[in-house]
């Protein structure tokens, strides 16, 4: 639905812009590359990670808090397992800390009553730099997903490391070797021109830096990350009711079709049954995507 938010605002442009949409929600991560403009929205590639979201960044902070808490306990007193309520307190506090670190470089954390005897965390400092180090494995997964969707769309990213560049090239050769491929697709020379961040978790500075480092483009700030999904759903509902004539979503494949090969097989099957996913406007049709 976030893709519809972008397309409705820009599909009427005379020129076509290649846009990367990065959507990090509370529990999922999705990426799409779109050609937007000239009366149509064409989806060049989609990919996602259904087990990665803002909650995982909160969990990284909560784990760190628990480690710091137990490390500070008197060794003569055996550490007790945290209750469900204590773990909930840690996660809630971690979420608030993550939000604060999106605006400030340091946060002071206090979590009372983690144990039955009243012991808890009192005045523990967490810097943005420490937080970003904790989250490096999660950011690496996001980076890998973006590289994967660029590979699917046959696009090059200027910020790839040498290892990533070689890996991406090898993956492309494997795809070209598939029996279903009649001829090799040429890698597009049209660069990504716009980057849009969707989902409240993308407010974390390290997300914008990672995307900017990969694409060489500063993410656009014209779309509210917290409202994009709701706006996209509203546009979709309005199109179904016939209130919007110039943009219509006919059908979408299952959301979890994110693997490149699985998506290709799905599209071939849909083509045989004449059940295409289309984004139609007055002047043309778009392509496939999973919302």
In summary, what is this structure?
With 291 residues, this protein is α+β, with helices and mostly antiparallel strands. 42% of the residues lie in helices and 18% in strands.
Jot down its keywords:
Nucleotidyltransferase, domain 5, ATP binding, Heat_shock_70_CS, Hsp_70_fam, nucleotide-binding, alpha+beta, 9 strands, three-stranded antiparallel sheet
CATH H-level homologous superfamily name of the largest domain: ATPase, nucleotide binding domain
Mean model confidence by pLDDT = 76
What is the CATH topology assignment of the largest domain? Nucleotidyltransferase, domain 5
Physical arrangement of strands within the biggest beta sheet: 3-2-1-6
In this structure, how is the largest beta sheet organized? 4 strands, mixed
**What letter string, H or E per element, gives the SSE order?**
HEEEHHEEHHHEHHEHEE
State the share of residues found in helices, binned by percent.
40-55%
How many strands in all?
A: 9
Q: Helix segment count?
A: 9
How many domains, in number, for the residues?
3
Span from first to last CA?
A: 6 Å
Q: Any idea what the shape is?
A: elongated
Rg from Cα: 22 Å
Task: Please write the CATH class name of the largest domain.
Answer: Alpha Beta
Which structural class best describes the helix and strand composition? alpha+beta
Percent of residues in beta strands: 15-25%
Low-confidence stretches: 180-184, 248-259, 273-291
CATH architecture of the largest domain: 2-Layer Sandwich
What can you see in these coordinates?
The chain has a four-stranded mixed beta sheet with strand order 3-2-1-6, with helices on both faces. It has a three-stranded antiparallel beta sheet with strand order 7-8-9. The chain has a two-stranded antiparallel ribbon with strand order 4-5. It folds into three domains: 25-51 and 138-162 and 190-250, Nucleotidyltransferase, domain 5, CATH 3.30.420; 54-134, Actin, Chain A, domain 4, CATH 3.90.640.10; 259-283. It is elongated. It contains nine helices and nine strands. Helix 1 packs across helix 8, helix 2 (54-71) packs across helix 3 and helix 5 crosses helix 6 (162-176). The longest helix has 18 residues, at 54-71. The protein is an alpha+beta fold and 291 residues long. Helix content is 42%, strand content 18%.
């Amino acid at each position: 639905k976030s893709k519809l938010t972008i397309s409705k605002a820009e599909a009427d442009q005379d020129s076509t812009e290649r846009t990367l949409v990065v959507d990090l929600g509370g529990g999922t991560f999705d990426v799409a590359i779109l050609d937007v403009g000239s009366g149509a929205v064409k989806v060049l590639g989609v990919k996602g990670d259904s087990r990665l979201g803002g909650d995982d960044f909160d969990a990284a902070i909560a784990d760190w808090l628990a480690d710091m808490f137990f490390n500070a306990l008197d060794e003569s007193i055996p550490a007790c397992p945290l209750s469900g309520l204590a773990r909930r307190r840690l996660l809630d506090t971690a979420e608030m800390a993550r939000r604060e670190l999106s605006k400030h470089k340091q946060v002071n954390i206090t979590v009372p009553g983690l144990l039955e005897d009243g012991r808890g965390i009192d005045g523990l400092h967490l810097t943005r730099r420490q937080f970003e180090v904790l989250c490096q494995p999660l950011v690496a997964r996001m980076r890998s997903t973006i590289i994967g969707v660029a590979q699917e769309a046959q696009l090059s990213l200027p910020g790839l490391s040498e290892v990533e560049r070689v890996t991406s090239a090898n993956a492309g050769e494997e795809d070209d070797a598939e029996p279903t491929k009649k001829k090799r697709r040429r890698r597009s020379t049209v660069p990504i021109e716009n980057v849009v961040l969707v989902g409240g978790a993308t407010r974390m500075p390290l997300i914008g830096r990672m995307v900017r480092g990969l694409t060489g483009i500063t993410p656009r700030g014209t779309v509210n990350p917290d409202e994009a999904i709701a706006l996209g759903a509203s546009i979709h509902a309005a199109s179904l009711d016939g209130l919007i004539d110039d943009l219509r979503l006919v059908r979408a494949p299952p959301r979890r079709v994110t693997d490149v090969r699985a998506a290709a097989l799905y599209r071939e099957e849909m083509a045989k049954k004449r059940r295409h996913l289309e984004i139609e406007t007055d002047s043309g049709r778009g392509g496939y995507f999973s919302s």
